[in-house]
Amino acid sequence: MFSNWNIFLNYKNFTINQEIKNKLNLYYQILIEENQKYNLTRITELNEVFEKHFLDSLLFVEQFQIIDQKIADIGTGAGFPGIVLKIFFPNIKLTLIKSNNKKVNFFKILSSKVKFKWCWNFK
């Protein structure tokens, strides 16, 4: 379980609460489990995933307001930045676009376990 939440505190356009922490930890757990089947990412070490995938997914919101925006994550890979943005900004309308069946299956598993009410899977 990740504990170095201070890396998220130096930014003005997003905040982190316990619900977000829980979802990110669950996302990490599912990512690591499914990565063994689907080769979703080469970065798997806990701190690296939180810094290089989760935090990096949020850096552009320092320059752009995304509240209530429509966002398409084309070629989303393992859900970066799209899923991370949706966790932090639940009111955005997010479309994940991925042609790889293995990764679409990952999103189905992730959305069922994290209980994303907004998640549809497309091929």
UniProtKB/TrEMBL annotation:
Keywords: Cytoplasm, Methyltransferase, rRNA processing, S-adenosyl-L-methionine, Transferase
SUPFAM superfamilies recorded: S-adenosyl-L-methionine-dependent methyltransferases
GO terms for MF: rRNA (guanine-N7-)-methyltransferase activity
InterPro entries attached to this UniProt entry: rRNA_ssu_MeTfrase_G, SAM-dependent_MTases_sf
Pfam families, sorted: GidB (PF02527)
GO cellular component term, pick one: cytosol
NCBIfam families tied to this protein: rsmG_gidB (TIGR00138)
Protein name, per record: Glucose-inhibited division protein B
Natural source organism: Mycoplasma capricolum subsp. capripneumoniae 87001
